[in-house]
Structure formats: C-alpha cells, structure tokens
Design goal:
Residues 250-263 have a biased composition (Basic and acidic residues). Keywords: 4Fe-4S, Iron, Iron-sulfur, Metal-binding. By secondary structure, the chain is of the alpha+beta class. It contains 9 helices and 12 strands. The radius of gyration is 19 Å and the shape is globular.
Length: 263
C-alpha cells in the first residue's frame, strides 16, 4: 500500500484572480500582516487575434515537495516531511528561527512569524482539517480551481483528477533546484519563470552530501544545541514564551520522526 501524499491539483484556467483563497487563508491561519501562506501569480497579458488581451492566473502555496530543500537546510530537524501524510511540517518547539529554510525554498513559500519567532508556511489548514473541513483556500474558491486530497488514494477527488489528466499535468520547478513539488497544474499554466534557486547554507550542504538523514539530524543537534537555546532566548521575549515540551522530549520527537522516515 502506498504511503499517503496530500497534494493539490489545480486547474488554473478556472482561476479568476478574485484573491478569495489568499484572504481566507490569512483569516483562517491568523497570518501576520505583510506575509502570506498562499498566492496567485499573474502572467503577462497576451493578445489573441480577434479576442483582445487575455491573462493567466496561477494559484500556489507550499508545494509539500518530495525532495524538500527546506528539510535539508534545517539544522535542528524542526522542518520535516511527515511519512503519515507526505506533508512538509514545522515543529515550532524545535524551530530556532534561523531562516535557513526560508532561503532554501525555491517558491518563497516560507516566512518568519514575527510574533512566534519561528518559520511558518502553509500546512493545508491543520486546524480546519482536524475538524473535518478542507483547507480554507479550497473551500473558498468560487470556481473550484483548487482540489485537495491524497493523490495516492485512487478514490480521492485529487487522485482521480490527476489520473484523468496525466498527459496534461504541469509542475512549476526550478531547474537548478527541482524539489519534486506536489502541486499539479492541469494543462497550460503561467507564469513558469518565477522560482529561484534554493540557497543552502554551506554547513548544512556539506552534511547533506556526507551524512545519512539520521546522522545529519544528530550532528546538527549536537553541534547547534547551545546555539538553539541561545537563539530562542534572544529571539523570543519572556512574555511570548509558549508552554513547550522540554529539550529531552524535543530530541525524542526528532529521533522518532527520523525512524519513521527511514522506515
């Protein structure tokens, strides 16, 4: 049986650039001012003979990639790919707000949360899904351009849409940093040239090249443990401290997740 992989299949030809998905996401996830978890890209206007000018709109968000460079860039294991869902997650209790993952994302899908002092991004509306609801962007879209689900479940709407359009699927990738994104566009989509090359911090790149995932996390935690604690103290005011698991529990979570991933 295939492991789950939650993803989005998007018919961008249906997008009318109403920005309902962007607004509903900000409200549902309390996204701070000046930041967004999702977006709608615009192509340059195209003039068609006899039809006047036209334009293409491309909805997007975190791609929950199969080869996530953000995971490789994280020194503490706070950013990880959940084998139970295929989603790229952020453990706020482990994040030190270093920003490595932000520069390592070719899609600009991450930002540093000004209040929580940690990295943040789309998680397909975890709180809504916990109550049996779909992601806010999907439920709000008036033209149903976005479809969300487990693409490894042949009975899901997303998997069916993907299977029936297999020869028409497009993925937006950066050729120097192909992260194998799990956002699939049906037929033509534009623009395609807006991604950037992933910026990997040199120490993490060397570890990624030389070590297994398990050893990389262990070495990263051992070498940066003191820095992580100092960083949290400097970046998070005392009044903003959250009730989190202790450091031993955090280490256990990383070890358990790594064992699940390797299994």
């Amino acid at each position: 049986m295939n492991k789950p992989q939650y993803a989005m299949v998007i018919d961008s030809s249906r997008c009318i650039d109403c920005k309902g998905c962007v607004a509903s996401c900000k409200v549902a996830n309390k996204v701070p001012e000046g930041h967004f978890r999702n977006w709608v890209k615009q192509s340059a206007p195209v003039v068609a003979v006899g039809k006047g000018a036209g334009q293409h709109f491309q909805p997007g968000a975190c791609m929950h990639c199969d080869n996530p460079t953000c995971v490789q860039a994280c020194p503490t294991g706070a950013t990880w790919k959940d084998p139970a869902t295929g989603m790229v997650e952020i453990d706020r209790g482990l994040c030190i707000g270093c920003g490595n993952c932000i520069a390592a994302c070719p899609y600009g899908a991450r930002y540093r949360h000004a209040t929580l002092r940690v990295a943040d991004k789309c998680d397909y509306c975890a709180e809504r899904r916990a109550h049996g609801l779909g992601p806010a962007c999907v439920d709000t879209c008036p033209t149903k351009a976005r479809v969300f689900g487990d693409i490894n479940d042949p009975n899901s709407e997303a998997a069916i849409l993907l299977a029936t359009n297999q020869d028409r699927i497009v993925r937006v990738v950066n050729q120097k940093s192909d992260t194998k994104p799990n956002m699939y566009y049906i037929a033509a989509t534009a623009p395609l040239d807006w991604t950037v090359e992933a910026k990997m911090p040199t120490p993490m790149k060397l570890m990624a090249d030389a070590l297994t995932p398990g050893l990389r996390v262990a070495v990263g935690l051992a070498g940066l443990g003191a820095l992580a604690m100092l960083g949290r103290q400097l970046l998070t005011p005392a009044s903003k401290e959250h009730d989190e698991d202790n450091q031993d529990d955090q280490g256990e979570r990383v070890t358990e997740r790594n064992a699940e991933t390797e299994a």
